[in-house]
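Field log, afternoon session.

UNIT: design team B
ACTIVITY: writing a sequence onto a fixed backbone
BACKBONE:
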Protein backbone atom coordinates (compact mmCIF):
# COMPACT_ATOMS: atom_id res chain seq x y z
CA UNK A 1 0.00 0.00 0.00
CA UNK A 2 1.31 3.43 -0.91
CA UNK A 3 2.10 6.01 1.72
CA UNK A 4 -0.30 8.93 2.00
CA UNK A 5 0.26 12.21 3.82
CA UNK A 6 -0.70 11.68 7.46
CA UNK A 7 -2.83 14.81 7.58
CA UNK A 8 -5.02 13.54 4.70
CA UNK A 9 -5.74 10.31 6.56
CA UNK A 10 -6.14 11.97 9.96
CA UNK A 11 -8.66 14.55 8.74
CA UNK A 12 -10.60 11.94 6.80
CA UNK A 13 -10.79 9.79 9.93
CA UNK A 14 -12.15 12.69 11.98
CA UNK A 15 -15.07 13.09 9.60
CA UNK A 16 -15.52 9.35 8.96
CA UNK A 17 -16.37 8.51 12.55
CA UNK A 18 -18.31 5.36 11.55
CA UNK A 19 -15.39 4.16 9.40
CA UNK A 20 -17.61 3.68 6.36
CA UNK A 21 -14.84 4.72 3.97
CA UNK A 22 -17.05 7.32 2.29
CA UNK A 23 -18.17 10.85 3.16
CA UNK A 24 -20.73 13.37 1.90
CA UNK A 25 -19.34 15.77 -0.69
CA UNK A 26 -19.72 18.72 1.68
CA UNK A 27 -17.40 17.03 4.20
CA UNK A 28 -14.85 16.30 1.48
CA UNK A 29 -14.91 20.01 0.63
CA UNK A 30 -14.29 20.90 4.30
CA UNK A 31 -11.35 18.50 4.46
CA UNK A 32 -9.82 19.88 1.28
CA UNK A 33 -10.12 23.45 2.57
CA UNK A 34 -8.55 22.40 5.86
CA UNK A 35 -5.65 21.00 3.85
CA UNK A 36 -5.09 24.36 2.15
CA UNK A 37 -7.08 24.01 -1.07
CA UNK A 38 -8.62 27.43 -1.67
CA UNK A 39 -11.09 26.52 -4.39
CA UNK A 40 -14.18 28.66 -4.91
CA UNK A 41 -17.57 27.07 -4.28
CA UNK A 42 -18.04 26.77 -8.05
CA UNK A 43 -14.67 25.01 -8.41
CA UNK A 44 -15.57 22.60 -5.60
CA UNK A 45 -18.90 21.81 -7.28
CA UNK A 46 -17.06 21.13 -10.55
CA UNK A 47 -14.50 18.89 -8.84
CA UNK A 48 -17.02 16.95 -6.78
CA UNK A 49 -19.93 16.71 -9.25
CA UNK A 50 -18.68 13.65 -11.16
CA UNK A 51 -17.92 11.73 -7.97
CA UNK A 52 -20.34 9.28 -6.35
CA UNK A 53 -22.29 10.42 -3.32
CA UNK A 54 -20.98 9.67 -0.74
CA UNK A 55 -17.38 10.13 -1.88
CA UNK A 56 -15.12 7.11 -1.25
CA UNK A 57 -11.68 7.67 0.27
CA UNK A 58 -9.84 6.67 -2.91
CA UNK A 59 -11.74 9.33 -4.89
CA UNK A 60 -10.74 11.92 -2.26
CA UNK A 61 -7.10 10.83 -2.62
CA UNK A 62 -7.44 11.21 -6.39
CA UNK A 63 -8.71 14.76 -5.95
CA UNK A 64 -5.90 15.66 -3.58
CA UNK A 65 -3.32 14.31 -6.03
CA UNK A 66 -4.52 16.58 -8.81
CA UNK A 67 -2.24 19.57 -9.40
CA UNK A 68 -3.43 22.61 -7.47
CA UNK A 69 -2.50 26.13 -8.44
CA UNK A 70 -4.63 28.23 -6.15
CA UNK A 71 -4.45 31.98 -5.88
CA UNK A 72 -1.08 33.35 -4.81
CA UNK A 73 -0.48 36.14 -2.33
CA UNK A 74 0.35 38.42 -5.26
CA UNK A 75 -2.93 37.54 -7.03
CA UNK A 76 -4.87 38.44 -3.90
CA UNK A 77 -2.87 41.63 -3.30
CA UNK A 78 -3.53 42.84 -6.86
CA UNK A 79 -7.24 42.06 -6.57
CA UNK A 80 -7.56 43.93 -3.26
CA UNK A 81 -5.50 46.90 -4.44
CA UNK A 82 -8.05 47.45 -7.20
CA UNK A 83 -10.43 48.58 -4.44
CA UNK A 84 -7.86 50.83 -2.75
CA UNK A 85 -8.88 53.90 -4.76
CA UNK A 86 -6.76 56.29 -2.68
CA UNK A 87 -3.64 54.15 -2.98
CA UNK A 88 -3.25 54.14 0.81
CA UNK A 89 -2.73 50.40 1.18
CA UNK A 90 -5.81 50.33 3.43
CA UNK A 91 -9.43 49.34 2.86
CA UNK A 92 -12.47 50.39 4.88
CA UNK A 93 -13.86 47.30 6.58
CA UNK A 94 -17.46 48.26 5.78
CA UNK A 95 -16.68 48.65 2.08
CA UNK A 96 -14.74 45.39 2.07
CA UNK A 97 -17.69 43.59 3.68
CA UNK A 98 -20.01 45.00 1.02
CA UNK A 99 -17.67 43.85 -1.76
CA UNK A 100 -17.42 40.34 -0.34
CA UNK A 101 -21.18 39.95 0.00
CA UNK A 102 -22.20 41.49 -3.34
CA UNK A 103 -19.52 40.86 -6.00
CA UNK A 104 -18.37 37.68 -7.72
CA UNK A 105 -18.91 34.57 -5.65
CA UNK A 106 -20.90 36.21 -2.88
CA UNK A 107 -20.00 35.30 0.68
CA UNK A 108 -22.54 34.96 3.47
CA UNK A 109 -22.58 37.92 5.85
CA UNK A 110 -21.84 35.61 8.78
CA UNK A 111 -18.70 34.31 7.03
CA UNK A 112 -17.57 37.86 6.24
CA UNK A 113 -18.11 38.94 9.87
CA UNK A 114 -16.11 35.94 11.07
CA UNK A 115 -13.20 36.68 8.71
CA UNK A 116 -13.16 40.41 9.35
CA UNK A 117 -13.50 39.84 13.08
CA UNK A 118 -10.09 38.14 13.05
CA UNK A 119 -8.29 40.83 11.02
CA UNK A 120 -6.64 43.81 12.77
CA UNK A 121 -8.67 46.99 12.16
CA UNK A 122 -7.25 50.46 12.85
CA UNK A 123 -8.97 53.35 14.66
CA UNK A 124 -10.36 54.60 11.33
CA UNK A 125 -12.14 51.31 10.59
CA UNK A 126 -9.60 50.26 7.98
CA UNK A 127 -7.56 47.13 7.41
CA UNK A 128 -4.21 47.05 5.68
CA UNK A 129 -4.11 45.22 2.36
CA UNK A 130 -0.84 43.50 3.34
CA UNK A 131 -2.26 42.35 6.70
CA UNK A 132 -5.40 41.07 5.01
CA UNK A 133 -3.40 39.16 2.40
CA UNK A 134 -1.22 37.59 5.10
CA UNK A 135 -4.31 36.59 7.08
CA UNK A 136 -6.12 35.11 4.08
CA UNK A 137 -3.11 33.16 2.83
CA UNK A 138 -1.82 31.94 6.19
CA UNK A 139 -1.39 28.17 6.20
CA UNK A 140 -4.11 26.20 7.89
CA UNK A 141 -2.89 24.96 11.25
CA UNK A 142 -1.84 21.34 11.31
CA UNK A 143 -4.76 19.12 12.18
CA UNK A 144 -2.85 16.40 13.94
CA UNK A 145 -2.06 18.17 17.26
CA UNK A 146 -5.73 19.09 17.75
CA UNK A 147 -7.16 15.81 16.49
CA UNK A 148 -8.15 14.50 19.92
CA UNK A 149 -9.97 17.72 20.80
CA UNK A 150 -11.81 17.75 17.48
CA UNK A 151 -12.86 14.13 17.98
CA UNK A 152 -14.17 15.00 21.48
CA UNK A 153 -16.17 17.90 20.03
CA UNK A 154 -17.64 15.75 17.28
CA UNK A 155 -18.56 13.06 19.82
CA UNK A 156 -20.38 15.65 21.97
CA UNK A 157 -22.33 16.90 18.93
CA UNK A 158 -23.24 13.44 17.63
CA UNK A 159 -26.86 12.43 18.15
CA UNK A 160 -27.32 9.82 20.85
Amino acid sequence: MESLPADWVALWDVFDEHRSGALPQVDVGHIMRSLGRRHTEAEFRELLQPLPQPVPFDAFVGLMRQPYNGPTEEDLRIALQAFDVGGTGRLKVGELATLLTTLGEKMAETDVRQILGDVPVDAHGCVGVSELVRFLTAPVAAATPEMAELQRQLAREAPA
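LOG NOTE: The chain has nine helices and four strands.
NEXT ACTIVITY: expression trials, pending approval
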